[in-house]
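tool_log.txt
---
The assistant was asked to compare two proteins side by side. It first ran the structure predictor on the initial sequence, then on the second. Raw inputs and outputs are pasted verbatim so the downstream comparison step can read them without reformatting.
(1)
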Amino acid sequence: MPTDPDAHAPRREFDAGLLSPASAGSDAVLADAEVLGALVATEVALVRAWAEVGVAPRAQAAELSSALGWRGTGEVCTGFDAWLPQLAEEAPSGGNPVIPLVPQLRDRTAPELRHWVHRGATSQDVLDSALMLIAHRAGRETLQQLRQTETALAQLAHTGQDRVAVARTLTQHAVPTTFGLRVAGWLRGVRRATERLSGAMSELPAQIAGAGGTLAGYVAVARAELGSEERAVSAVGELPAAFAAELGLATPEGPWHTVRWPVTELGDALVQSVDALGVLAADVTTLSRTEIGEVAESRGGGSSAMPQKRNPAHAVLIRSAAIRAPHLGATLHAASALAVDERPDGAWHAEWPTLRELLRLALGASTHAAELAAGLAVDTDAIAHNLGKTSGLIVAERLSIVLGPIIGAERVRDIVSRVRAGAALIEMLSAESGLAEALAARGGPSIEELADPAQYVGLARQLVDAALGSPAHTDAPAPTEEPG
């Protein structure tokens, strides 16, 4: 039989980000090596927590921490990348990577320390806690990018708050608005999502429940070491808080092997963040179309065949994340609903890749959004040009409201039809007998003011001011405004 030339080749990396440009370059914190480091850190944190509650000798906990590369609260252990291929190969036999990891860790520690590795724990305690640690680390980076996006959007809203623009409803020109108010909408959505993600992250708990959710194994360990049931129960009562503190996570209110709100609430917050960025991206892709041209990304993407193109690459990649994220969130909810008995049979396993991919999309989308918002160029000439495309009928709603009681709704519709056919709005209004006098008698606007889009933006400035009056960061460089 011929020899396969690749049979003994090094194992290739499965996913280097080639087909994931939305997150490539920003998702290293979610790599398999980081997950493995979090699993090791979780095992070390448990030993350190045993020492903190007076069950394990502190000297042995410190020695084991050193042997397994403990780097401190909220950090992952490093130096275990070489184990990844074997652990990935062996994980299916037990259904999770913790089972083959534990003997590897024991082999790496001194004989007198080995019995403390994984002592009292179950695989789900370790894997859930490690995923919460990874989520917290990735979430911190995502929040940083979201706040940078807020900063840039706040400056953009401030700069454009008096820039009158077309408001579009159902794709069509509707009434005047301001570019600043449009941006303020993006800002409010991102800010709300940031607040919710920050809140969800602050509640990410460690998992410590034992094999059946009773912590019986932990009590047995403490009883064996302390010699007293009462002292053992007291020590284990303090163990969850000590364990969570070592990892930098919240203290669990109880076992959550099948009570999966920590995962679903985090997932919901991540989806909301990507949703908010998706609105920004969708508007940018529309406004940067060649025939609209009101905005452009500072570093437009190129084309392999059409060198004239300036593609909104950041917005496109954010949109790709926004299309996928809600479905990942739905998978987390389905898994939560099917978390049966005291250990889910498949629902738990479905969460791992789903949550990581959702974290990956949120981090990637927020990274692209921060760069997009900081460099978004605004073409004021294009905005003005588009505002005039309907020959003044952008104020048709105002004409109906103001003129209807004076000249009648039918006459207003006739004026609008004539303007649509090519007549000049100001001339049509000026030719209307007695109209200027009637407007003046009512204390209303002049004909010129009536037809001026800038005079029909309602509370746009106040709404922008209100958005900027919330805690926002306005110290970013001013965005670029380009003439057409």
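(2)
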Amino acid sequence: MEPTIALRERLRKMINDRIPTGGTDKDAVFLNAELDDILRESESIYYAASEGWTIKAGLLEGDIEGYSAGNEKYELTKLQDRLSHALRMAQKYKDLAEEAEEQQPSFLLKCSAPDVM
């Protein structure tokens, strides 16, 4: 699939990869060039989203689950829950891509012999 700005922005929304207000693509998980590569390698936007979520799942390993500052303690979403969510989203978009492929329109041609005098 040929990447466009509109496709890239749609893919960013699908994989929840926001660019902060006033930021650039360097402030997000994926650079624009990386999203363009994913789009080029994919047959549909759904396959691209599935690939994006799979990559995001792989990037979670180094994340922390909580921290404390003085007497305050902060618990973040558990790594296993975030990993499960990312993999579920990858599977969801893969299923949507396969469903879209099955619903490709088809047509039947009927040929008749011409009337000859």
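---
observation on (2): Residues 25 and 33 are 9 Å apart (CA to CA). The first strand starts at residue 66 and ends at 69.
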